[in-house]
Design goal:
Length: 289
């Protein structure tokens, strides 16, 4: 018989799911696994008596209640970590910035959040574990404080992130912290505009983020006149010739997509020529825009 759920596979009978059919329902192995996953989710806390079939009426209400309880536990844990960070409760390591006073932290949290921190804090045959401090010289004091707040709490006030998004994105990449990398990427996409597009393009290159790269190039091309004549554009061009080639290509691609075929071929040739010229002459690219 065909599976009662997906209607695609001939399957065996699983009587344990026959809630409405005394003879059982026909379920394929894949659907059976999905049902088991759903039931495990909804029954996750039965052993601790925090949720049960009786008080939640099973199904959607049970799953919704479990999600609410999970959110409450998450808020409780994050709240505790936030207090530990702000008050330095039972801290056992000092984190030193490039300048300014050090900030108290907790070895266990640093090590569990980042493999790089775990290696820094561990001992092996070649080195001893740091006794009382580690140094992160790429941060100033304020940047380090914001980074640790994000590391502890997993979130950050909008104004804090907007002020420090560059160093936070680079640090989450350097110290290999996946959930912060994802958080930074999503938040940067939300704040991306003509004023931040060049910086975001730089970040995308360092962090190997295709999503940021595409979004930044689209923003630059979409606001080309404003960005190309902005005060910081020439300095950006001097320091990032490889990125300027990508901007040129993106700009040329947009222009050629609206032209007849003959003119489009001319644009492709111009793109190649401009790239060659720019590599050797830098800012001369502005003459061709």
């Amino acid at each position: 018989m065909d599976c009662s759920f997906c209607k695609k596979v001939r399957v065996q009978l699983h009587k344990q799911y026959s809630h409405s059919n005394p003879g059982g329902v026909v379920v394929c192995n894949r659907c059976n696994e999905e049902i088991n996953s759903m039931m495990n989710l909804m029954n996750k806390d039965r052993n601790t008596a925090t949720i049960s079939l009786a008080d939640a009426n099973w199904g959607t209400k049970s799953a919704t209640r479990w999600i609410e309880l999970a959110k409450e536990r998450e808020d409780y844990l994050i709240g505790g970590l936030n207090v530990a960070f702000e008050e330095g409760s039972y801290s056992d390591i000092q984190v030193k910035p490039g300048n300014g006073p050090s900030i108290p932290a907790h070895r266990f949290l640093l090590a569990t959040k980042s493999e790089v921190f775990e290696n820094m804090l561990a001992s092996d045959t070649c080195k001893a574990a740091p006794l009382d401090s580690i140094s992160l010289p790429e941060f100033n004091h304020e940047e380090l404080e914001i980074f640790l707040e994000l590391l502890y709490c997993g979130n950050l006030a909008k104004e804090k992130f907007e002020k420090h998004f560059s160093c936070l994105a680079l640090a989450s990449h350097k110290y290999v912290i996946p959930h912060l990398q994802k958080f930074c990427e999503e938040e940067i996409l939300n704040l991306l505009d003509s004023s931040t597009a060049l910086k975001v393009l730089e970040i995308s290159e360092i962090c190997s983020s295709e999503a940021l790269k595409v979004a930044a190039l689209n923003s630059i091309v979409g606001h080309s006149e404003e960005i190309y004549y902005s005060p910081g554009y020439e300095e950006f061009a001097r320091q990032n010739t490889h990125l300027m080639v990508q901007i040129t290509r993106a700009h040329s691609k947009k222009k050629s997509s609206t032209l007849p075929k003959k003119k489009r071929m001319g644009c492709l040739f111009a793109e190649f020529t401009i790239s060659r010229i720019y590599n050797s002459m830098g800012l001369q690219i502005l003459e061709f825009m």
